[in-house]
Amino acid sequence: MPWKKSEPMEQRIEFGIKAMGTLNFRALCQEYGISAKTGYKWKERFLRDGWAGMAEESRRPRSSPDQLPEEAVCELVRLKLGHLAWGPRKIRELYRRRHGEVASESTVKRVLERAGLTQKRRRRRSAEAGRLYSARHASAPNEVWTVDFKGWWRSYGKRCEPLTVRDEHSRYILELRAMDNAKTETVRQSFEGLFERAGLPQAIRSDNGSPFANIHGIFGLSRLSAWWVALGIDLERGRPGHPQDNAAHERMHLDISREIEALGQSDQAAMDVWRQSFNYERPHETLGMRCPGELYCASERKYEGTPEDLDYPQMCPRRVSAHGTIKLDGQVLFLSTALAGWSIGLKPITQESMEVWFGRLLLGEVNLATSNFIRADIRPNKTANERENV
């Protein structure tokens, strides 16, 4: 904000003197027609430099590519050519270590830009950055299961790509299964057997690949993950390009690579022996040198088969067609083919809008005036994992 019309230098000195004794600093700033931020700046200058600090400073950048000596510019370019994968910040630090004084990071960046040695980073769309991402860590067995496919290998002319499922809290490997294929029905059969043995977890965490997810669906819902939701299991997803979100699972895959794949083994019997050793013989430092089998216990949530459909008390149910659509007031709304055959619940929230629920997962809202469906995973100001008890 501007100073009052007068000699700026005199106004600032007068303001600095009054600022030393005022009890209402903001009122003093209003009196002089400046913001509190500007007022604190000039008060600090007055305390540091006295009357001399009240003079206007030049706004010209302290350094620029044009002001750098030719030798410094050439040295920055030479360092960058020797480390093409490094950004301006690392190049600047390397220059500082070798030559001492160095220009600002922004100046170094402009030097490299003018030399055509930088590339703009591609930013991921926020809607793609882990729609159901959760940074939580399981505090008890069966709170979170993690699932993935181990990268395939070939043994005796046969392709082997095991399905792996583990309990995050105890590190217990629940499933290490050589699959004939990665089709939805094949994987679902494996999970049905697992649920019968171990019960149901609270949540399952997966990556964004098939058959666990469909990158084009609402919250990445696939037919497999929609089945999990119908069973009352929450979904969690790692962020695309962030394997560290499932780091312990990836570390287990490394052990499989070293101890099974490296030996050229691909039969189920060898995997069962390795899983038994991992769960009941191998101590883990993160578990206080205990074995996963010492901590893990089956879930109290028993698997009773797949429900015929979902109930929505105090909501209006609609069955999703084979094409992934529902009808509302004569209008056809597309939701997801992953929900085909299941019912969703419509919950009025205003006279012109209704929430759309699938189990405990809020899919979005329907605007009754325009018949538009607004997905919850791409709406602003809505969390991607928004749930409530229904």
How would you characterize this protein structure?
- It is a single chain.
- The protein has helices at residues 8-19, 25-31, 36-49, 70-82, 88-99, 105-114, 184-198, 223-230, 247-259, 268-280, 292-295, and strands at 144-149, 153-155, 158-160, 162-167, 173-178, 203-206, 234-237, 316-319, 325-328, 331-334, 343-350, 353-358, 361-367, 372-375.
- It is an alpha+beta fold and 390 residues long.
- The longest helix is centred in the middle third of the chain and has 15 residues, at 184-198.
- The two termini are 52 Å apart.
- The relative contact order is 0.08.
Most strands sheet? 5 strands, mixed
Mean pLDDT: 83
CATH topology of the largest domain, anyone? Nucleotidyltransferase, domain 5
Distance N terminus to C terminus?
52 Å
Structural class based on helices, strands and sheet pairing: alpha+beta
Radius of gyration (Å): 31 Å
Could you give the order of the helices and strands? HHHHHHEEEEEHEHEHHHEEEEEEE
Level of helix content?
25-40%
General shape: extended
Q: For this structure, what is the CATH homologous superfamily of the largest domain? A: Ribonuclease H-like superfamily/Ribonuclease H
Q: Quickly give the CATH architecture of the largest domain.
A: 2-Layer Sandwich
Q: Provide the spatial order of strands within the biggest beta sheet.
A: 5-4-1-6-7
Number of domains: 4
Number of strands: 14
In CATH, what is the class of the largest domain?
Answer: Alpha Beta
User: What is the number of helices?
Assistant: 11
DSSP strand (E) fraction? 15-25%
Low-confidence stretches: 123-130, 380-390
